[in-house]
What does this fold into?
Amino acid sequence: MHDLLLRGGSVHDGTGAPAVTADVAVAGDRIVAVGRDLGPARRVVDVDGLAVAPGFVDAHTHSDLVALTGRPEGAKLRQGVTTEVVGNCGVSFAPLDEAAAGHLTGIYGDLTCGLPIGPRTFAGYLAEVEAARPTTNVVALVGHAALRTTANGMAEALAPGALDRMCALLAESLDAGAAGLSSGLVYPPGSHAAPEEMTALAAVAQRYGRIYATHLRDEGDRLPEALDEAIAVAEASGVRLQVSHCKVTGRRNHGRAPDLLARLHAARRAGIDVAGDAYPYTSGATVMVALLPPSATAGGADRLVQLLGDPRERERLRAAADHGQGLWRAADPGGVRLMRHKDPGVCGRTLAEVGADPWTTLCELVAADPGATVLLEAMDLTDVLTILADPLIGIGSDGTPSAGAGHPRNRGCFPELFATVVRTHGALDLPTAVHKATAANADRFGLAGRGRLGAGAVADVCVFDPARVAHPDPLGEPAGFLHVLVAGVPAVEDGRVTGARAGRVLRA
Ligand SMILES: [Zn+2]
It folds into this structure.
């Protein structure tokens, strides 16, 4: 007697093969059979006309601390996600010492879910998440910013011995089960890291057979050089490389997606194990300080506020920004929209709308709230679709669980994939889109037994209506996702979150 039978659905196995009409039998936390006439079950759910897929694996999120809030929001479950890779873009909240916890909170406070951040080891972090009983499975990367800030503070130059200390902290975290290393080379302190520093750390990840995921140093004018840098790090260290949220930003770079993809494919032909992830939106989102030259944040948040209060310093920084330091040059002031800021009056407005001189406005807004976040309208739809369609690219939302207004990708990435990319634009067929959201990512991050729907796999399952999935309201819930199982436990039933917290920490 099975525990559950999903009867008569259109079953996608996650490999990209065409769907087949079949029943799916679940017993305990496993799928025991896929086929016809599978025998009796305690519970039968008729899923005729619906797609039955492996639970989605979100390759790139910032949900690191969601479980620790004690009030999991279900934003990911509601779109079929059963596993999240956290700790991306160089930011993880372990391992940290007291001072590093303060520095990171000053700039990346938006990612803390309002929780106080203190010193912790990576093993301690994973144990806390486990004890908090997450709603989705958690795969955790070690952020370079955590390593560097703990070993070296916010200084640009590495002190003697700091790199050895970073490598030791990384090894300790990988021993604890971290899935790999991440970097955010556009954000402080990642922006201070030379390629040699990243190569030394990537070599540690490689020794453990783990992945290195990087937010490139530049996704706009100098994207080719930034990508070549990451590939050179992979070549020198032998590490498996994941290029995070692949995109081409800045109006003058629109149309350059084929060049990005050609570089990835050339690297693979040269024997480098590289792939990437992307999200289906033409806008990105980030911390507002990323628009400033990285040197501005080298002294920490207090020093930054001091600098921005000095008109001469502001001019010096503007000159550096105009030369391409920071994201300023890739941004159009009319396309930079405030998401979170201490002054609620500016939220939802663009830099161009808030003040007459965009640079001065930017400096004043950052000085008033160094943790402010913005939405950046910076990509071209054709580029986004071209990248998503490439076989090397999996799906990663880059979602941030901000309270209130945030980028819609946190709640809407996967419905947007099926509604816009598959249905509206036809840029992917359904089995391929499912593959990019499941097995492609599970394989990339070494998640055995996940991402495929077949006998013996863990029963992480998503049942959705491909004709109806949508995310009409950016702050609201998606439609069309009806049932989600996490390790056989119903986490969404008839479109409603059940409150089950069956997620596990998936240690490497
Ligand atoms: Zn990033």
Remarks:
- The chain has three domains: 2-54+453-497, 57-285+378-444, 286-377.
- Residues 89, 184, 215, 244-245 surround zinc ion (CB under 6 Å).
- The mean pLDDT is 95.
